[in-house]
Amino acid sequence: MTLETEIEDGLASYNFAYLDEQTKRMIRRAILKGIAIPGYQVPFASREMPMPYGWGTGGVQVTASIIGPDDTLKVIDQGADDTTNAVSIRAFFAKVADVETTTRTGEATIIQTRHRIPEEKLTEGQILVYQVPIPEPLRFLEPRETETRKMHALAEYGLMHVKLYEDIARNGHIATTYAYPVKVEGRYVMDPSPTPKFDNPKMHMSDALQLFGAGREKRIYAVPPHTNVVSLDFEDYPFEIQTFEEPCALCGAHGVYLDEVILDDRGGRMFVCSDTDFCEERRAEGHRGHLSGEAMEAAE
Amino acid sequence: MYVAVKGGEAAIRNAHRLLADRRRGDRSLPSLTLGQIAEQLALACDRVMAEGSVYDRELAALAIKQARGDLIEAIFLLRAYRTTLPRFGYSEPIDTGAMQVERRVSATYKDLPGGQMLGPTFDYTHRLLDPSLAGDDAPDDPEAREGDGVPAMRVSDILAQEGLIEADGETGGEEIGDLTRTPMEFPMGRDTRLQALARGDEGFLLALGYSTQRGYARSHPFVGEIRIGEVEVEYRMPELGLTVSLGRIRVTECQMVNQFKGSAKAPPQFTRGYGLVFGQSERKAMAVALCDRALRADELGEDKFAPAQDEEFVISHSDNVQATGFVEHLKLPHYVDFQAELDLVRRMRGEHARKQGGDEAMPEAAE
């Protein structure tokens, strides 16, 4: 039967980094437009990818369009290199682009991420690619794309401030803890993707290029290096990031984002770095948290 | 004990190995062949081809086998394959008037040129389980007769002779949109809207079509005609100025005839809802036709109040590959965001307790 050979041929003839060159060109144009208009959502003809929508297809398409054979790729999900979807996406690029992969932030030229920005400061020449589920920061205030596009065009962001104000009136706080809206270069209000607001300050004046891909929603946007990124707030209720009372239980780091790990069924818990690479490097340098010995034994 | 959620490559590999085992099932039973799936689960293949947007029975059969019969998963497999295929051009419009008809029914006329042909339909079968199918009894050969060679005239053409029904819309000189190559924008043209409906989820469109019948944008529909059969697909090669046939495909076409009171500009005449689907799928074609008509509310100056009339709502949510991906992505880890919410809820509870402090002398009584 000819079917098998057809399919095998099809598989064998996938282009470098999976997407065909025409598609990459189309995506690169969208990326360039996004860089030229920081924070503006550029519609693009998103392709079906061999992983489901909502699982990083936007980020994967952006990465596939910018990656070259000399790049070194890092993929994280929730800050960790070893979460299943990060493993799966890393394996995908190792297969279809045959690139070096790494878990070390400093070594990577491209970092694809879901829900976190690495703790280590990114440097010039690095590109951070965000996977974005809902690119429209106004979506939950106004479900219609036709309306939200108008609001962006007119820079009519009053509704967002009203929402934040209502939070304060009702709860005494701005009750947005992740996907906290930012204003980019004084113009577009942008969704930073569902990163915790803890990471928002890292976007401001970053040395690295930040690219955002939303596959299902067919949007790409960008924050070029050295761009103003300001989290929305009020003079009397300034933007604040989360703080943790204790340091990382494994590496003792302060001022980093922590995950809560449940230890037993009696309320025992520990807080550990969400950025696994950061934590490992600190431990390699000899830093220790109060549970590091115990936890490492248990894990072995 | 501290066990981080580690999704190592080994875990993924083992999960996929187990999946392969479960897919195959009991090894003492013969494996399904693609031919068996394509022939005996033909309508499943039709649905996968239609919503996967690739007309290829064998690939559809393979996708169904690989997906363990999960049709949305099979559709996804086919879509992901389709996206890698080179595109060398667009075919000429198919001519359903020249269709080699296997089934053709009209609810608006008792009889009409070309006749009513029931074809291979479930209609009028009594839905009684047939124990004989548990075995391998060969059914009788079907009746066949020579056709008279006259193409069956489209019902819309009969009505058009009197000017009673709106004509086919003009496409003008404009290029037809391509949903798969340009980003969607609202409001859409009817061309891209029909494309989206053609690959939309059968169940979703069925429910929306049904809602229009129950009064949420009622359009007084009649089935002008449903026809199922094969049409020729032709491709015009601009370099050579030649039109060549690429082959034949089976499609289902539904033309709904709907009321329209007329307006200041247009005299009263019937309007149309249109549905065209790969393969044999009357339910889908009819649902598409109902949705198409409902979505023309703006064009026809009708009040818009129902979900089925809301283009952005219908089209944004009709694609089952997108829908299943995003719904199922909720099972990916979200603990970073959840941590942020936990922190906030704890803080707010703390403040709440402090505020209530004085009143909470008897917490038991309050519970």
Main structural class of chain B: alpha+beta
Give the rounded overall mean pLDDT of chain A: 91
Structural class of chain A: alpha/beta
Encode the helix/strand succession of chain A as letters. HHEHEHEEEHHEEHEEEEEHH
State the total count of DSSP E strands of chain B: 4
* Average pLDDT over all residues of chain B: 89
Strand order of the largest sheet of chain A: 1-9-8-5-4-2-3
Structure explained in plain terms:
- The complex is a heterodimer of chains A (300) and B (367).
- Chain A has 300 residues and is of the alpha/beta class.
- Chain A has 2 domains: 21-147 and 175-231, Rossmann fold, CATH 3.40.50; 258-299, no CATH class.
- Helices cover 31% and strands 17% of the residues of chain A.
- Chain A is built from 9 helices and 12 strands.
- In chain A, α2 (21-36) packs across α3 (57-66).
- Chain B is an alpha+beta fold and 367 residues long.
- Chain B has 3 domains: 10-24 and 31-82, no CATH class; 96-121 and 150-168 and 178-324, no CATH class; 333-367.
- Chain B has 13 helices and 4 strands.
- Chain B has helices spanning 9-24, 34-40, 42-52, 57-66, 71-82, 155-161, 190-198, 202-213, 282-294, 311-316, 320-328, 335-356, 363-366, and strands at residues 100-105, 222-237, 242-258, 271-278.
- A 4-stranded antiparallel beta sheet of chain B has the order 1-2-3-4.
- The relative contact order of chain B is 0.12.
- Mean pLDDT of chain B is 89; it is low at 1-5 and 361-367.
